[in-house]
Design brief:
Order of helices and strands: EEHEEHHEEHEHEEEEHEHEEEH
CATH architecture of the largest domain: Alpha-Beta Barrel
CATH class of the largest domain: Alpha Beta
Number of strands: 15
Shape: globular
CATH superfamily of the largest domain: D-amino Acid Aminotransferase, subunit A, domain 2
Number of domains: 2
Helix content: 25-40%
Bound molecules: pyridoxal-5'-phosphate
CATH topology of the largest domain: D-amino Acid Aminotransferase, Chain A, domain 2
Distance between the termini: 26 Å
Mean pLDDT: 98
Length: 284
């Protein structure tokens, strides 16, 4: 497998990550995941924009322009002959010694960039069947809008959900649902879709942008407002969204069925619109 390591494309086993890399020591870095269908990126601009926003929010000076980054990622999927799959890319603030919380001088310490690509076909069967979830307190920090490589809060929540026998963790702060451990969260009640507004408590999902557009095209009303765990438990439908899972029905929460306990008609419609947009951007 070929990967990107700083400005080079190299074999996966040539990459050397220093033990004093600030990503390794402090989780001082940001990342993103973008998906390709039929050998073409879907919503690449939005992912790259979010990456640059995250760099700005963390004062991390990126060593390339948006265009250069897009070119490099495009080369990566071509070289690896990725038809349908995921590209993971991240940057850390670099290798600084001795260990010190203060940001190093960017004139002296260069960031470390890596990217890899993996073939991952669409799992239509899973998108029809749906997944289960468990309600877990959201104990993460207050900069959830930054796609930080520091994911301990997220993985601890997912681990709790798995211990409860569920696929995903639905997170809440004082009873208000924020998002899931690795996706945005949605519910449907009486024909209206609800999802948490953007802000510092959730990651502004690129899939969320696509689904909001899909709902508008389909004439389904959406309210970007907070809903409670109680409201979620009484919802007609629930689903989560991310680049890798698209719009994924949540059919059971803490052992109780959501609505009919099967994929509902609204998420079904959004899945179809999502696929239409994929086909428009990437071909079929
Ligand atoms: N929320 C969290 C915590 C995530 O980790 C992700 C994706 O990884 C999302 C939301 C969805 O973001 P996107 O739709 O851009 O993949």
């Amino acid at each position: 497998m070929k990967v990107i390591w700083n400005d080079k494309i190299v074999d996966r086993n040539e990459v050397k990550i220093d033990m004093e890399d600030r990503g390794y020591q402090f989780a001082d870095g940001i990342y993103d995941v973008v998906r390709a269908y039929n050998g073409k990126f879907f919503t690449l601009d939005e992912h790259v924009d979010r990456f640059f926003r995250g760099a700005c929010q963390t004062d991390l000076e990126l060593p390339f322009s948006k265009e250069e980054l897009k070119e490099r990622l495009t080369t990566l999927i071509k070289i690896n002959q990725i038809d349908t799959g995921n590209v993971y890319f991240q940057i850390t603030r670099g290798i600084a010694s001795p260990r010190n919380h203060t940001y190093p001088d960017p004139e002296v310490v260069a960031p470390v960039f890596t990217a890899s690509a993996t073939v991952v076909p669409r799992d239509q069967e899973k998108m029809n069947r749906g997944i289960t979830a468990s309600i877990i307190p959201d104990t993460r920090w207050l900069h959830c809008d930054i796609k930080s490589i520091s994911l301990l809060g997220n993985i601890m929540a997912k681990h709790e959900a798995h211990k409860n026998g569920a696929d995903e963790a639905v997170l809440h702060r004082d009873g208000a649902v924020t998002e899931c451990s690795s996706s945005n969260m949605w519910m449907v009640k009486d024909g209206t879709i609800y999802t948490h507004p953007d802000g510092n408590l959730i990651l502004p999902g690129v899939t969320k942008i696509v689904l909001l557009r899909a709902a508008e095209k389909a004439g389904i009303p959406v309210k970007e407002e907070t809903f409670t765990v109680e409201q979620l438990k009484n919802a007609d439908e629930a689903f989560s969204s991310s680049t890798t899972i698209e719009a994924m029905p949540i059919i059971e929460i803490d052992g109780c069925p959501v609505g009919s306990g099967k994929k509902g008609p609204i998420v079904e419609k959004l899945q179809q619109y999502y696929l239409n947009e994929v086909e428009e951007q990437c071909g079929s």
